[in-house]
Amino acid sequence: MNEEIIARAGEFIAATRDCILALIDENGYPTAARITPTKTEGIEWITIGNSIESNWTKRAAKCDRASICYSSERPEYNVTLVGTLEIITDDFTLKKEMWREWMETYYSGPEDPKYCVLRFRTLRYSLYIDGTQVRGTLPNNLHA
Fold it and tell me: Of 19, 26, 113, 136, which sees the most CB atoms within 10 A?
């Protein structure tokens, strides 16, 4: 049953445009912002195209612990993921894969040194899908 709920949560994430990213700020307080992920792989990892100069990237550089939450009212879904956020600046294949046309507003292209990819890797999860709650860890990501 857990595998089914995890799979349904992954499908929900893939079909949902926005989520909330929470990080610790420079004063040690949690901050949250709505983001639009670039790509997801089930509940295992999520990537976000971003600026190397953004507050999110600066915060992740100081403390890589993060949480991401996806939710909806109908059907009643809540997917809360806790994990780490990696800043990727030198993997040009990944940066090109994560590139979206709308990013041209902010960057000259995937090779732009100001453009980076933030990759969130889930360590633990709390899923509420249609009245069923499942909590657990992703052991494959514990040493990622």
Answer: 19
pTM: 0.90
What DSSP letter does each residue of 1-43 carry, written as one string?
Answer: -HHHHHHHHHHHHHH---EEEEEE-TTS-EEEEEE--SEEETT
Cα-based angle 27, 30, 34 (whole degrees, multiple of 5): 125
66/64 Cα distance (integer angstroms) = 6
CB 20 within 8 A of CB 34: yes
Give per-residue pLDDT as tens, 19-62: 999 999 989 999 999 999 999 999 999 999 999 999 999 999 99
Q: Is 42 exposed, middle or buried (0-12, 13-18, 19+ CB in 10 A)?
A: middle
**Structure-token pair, residue 64:** 């890589």
Q: Tell me the pLDDT tens digit for each residue of 76-128.
A: 899 999 999 999 999 999 999 989 888 899 999 999 999 999 999 999 999 99
